Amino acid sequence: MHIDIPQSRCRFAIAQGDITPPTDIYHRMWGAAKHDRATGIHQPLRATVTALAPAEGDERQFIIALDHCVMGRQEMDHLLADVSAGTGISRTDLIVVFSHTHAAGLMGLERGDLPGGNLIAPYLDDLAVRVVELAREARDHLQIATLVYGTGRCNLAAHRDFWDEENELWACGYNPGTPADDTVLVGRAHAEDGTLLATIVNYACHPTTLAWGNTLISPDYPGAMRDTIEAATGAPCLFLQGASGELGPVEGFVSDPEVAERNGRQLAYAALSALEALPAAGTRFAYHGPVVSGATLGEWKYTDFPAAHAEANAQWQLHREAIELPIRPGTPTPEQVTAELAEWETKDTPEARAMVERKRRLLHRLSQLPPGDVFPLETIVLKIGGAVWVIVQGEPYSILQTALRERFPGTPIIVAPIASHWGASYLPPRALYDKGIYQESIAVTAPGSLETVIETIGKKIESLSK
């Protein structure tokens, strides 16, 4: 007799700002790239700070979304320490997630001796100052809001584990033979007076439209996606990258910015369609009975939620946990990789340049591993009324989100991985280990880790739903 659209009632605030680096900063993100410094700006990079808090109570969760690919542990520690000190917000209440654009540059302090690398440290200092300003703004403008959720579909993302039969190897590129998760989870946040405060788009697809041939700083497709949605709605758009370990755009690895903009508009139109279908906040779609006409018609109308239902939408349950995952046996030592790096540096070929980049990145990953044989994976599960927000460190395959959504049908589950520092690397399914696929070849946790994460988070959602 009625349909209840999932909603959350909480305190909410959002603040956005420009975090575009200097034009000539170190930019090389790809092993195949021939440049080191950026040569210009395609579109500005953005930081978005979203604050969530219960309608009543002291708990808070600040989500700092950055238009960067990843950040190392050292850089992450400095950023969070500065933000906490500059705002009075506990570090526990702060989490950083990334749009994961591969065209923003690689902002690692270990690259300070490379061309343009001298600009990285000052840029990271400026970034912290900007995020402090935005976090203060979000902190000071928390207000009661209702979030309404919906789902759309978009075929921008494609599976990217492709078996190259001719060369007998796995290539990280478009695989037309395997379906990809096309879920677009959207939300609208409304103030008490109905004002639209923000839209939310959660979609899983690597922002790898622009690749080794691109020399411009860019947010990749999320930039055009946000611009399109904001032009249509007049409100800020929060983009949260989904679990996209094996997903990338059908048309990717190009150097033409227009392709990135077209990919962004494709996702924006799909999200706007889903957003337009959402009802007003605080309402349900209910049957009102028959109407005798040329035929006997059934009348449905949107009506206000009953009080008990509105109270249920305001229930707040926040759980933070470090899931202990075994580090992969056979992980090389820094000494081994340093020796391999030195050998590649003696060669002057395009392949050697790419392999030097691989070894540098491997050394960086190894430097972020904790002592011992366990990696503590940061996770957050936040249930607000009829929806669940899941924030996870590392780059899991999309089965993380598809499995959770299948287990809890009817419950919107926002899944935002690539959180915190990148020490966890990829989280592929157990069956893909030792296949030679790129993502599993650089995974730092043992087979079965992703399955452990899915089961642990699933059990937590189940316990919070009782």
* Main beta-sheet annotation: 8 strands, mixed
Helix content: 25-40%
Nearest-integer average pLDDT? 95
Return the structural class: alpha+beta
The overall strand count is 23
Spans where pLDDT lies below 50 across 5 or more residues: none
Shape: globular
Strands of the widest sheet, in order across it, are: 6-5-4-2-7-11-12-14
Instruction: Work out the radius of gyration.
Output: 23 Å
Strand content: 25-35%
Number of H- or I-type helical stretches:
10
Tally of separate domains: 2
The N- to C-terminal Cα distance equals 24 Å
Overview in brief:
With 466 residues, the protein is an alpha+beta fold. The protein has helices at residues 73-87, 120-140, 221-233, 257-276, 307-313, 334-345, 350-367, 399-407, 438-441, 449-464; strands at 2-3, 7-18, 40-41, 46-53, 61-66, 94-98, 143-153, 157-159, 161-164, 169-172, 183-191, 196-203, 216-217, 237-241, 247-249, 283-292, 296-304, 316-326, 374-384, 387-393, 395-396, 413-419, 426-427. The protein is built from ten helices and 23 strands.
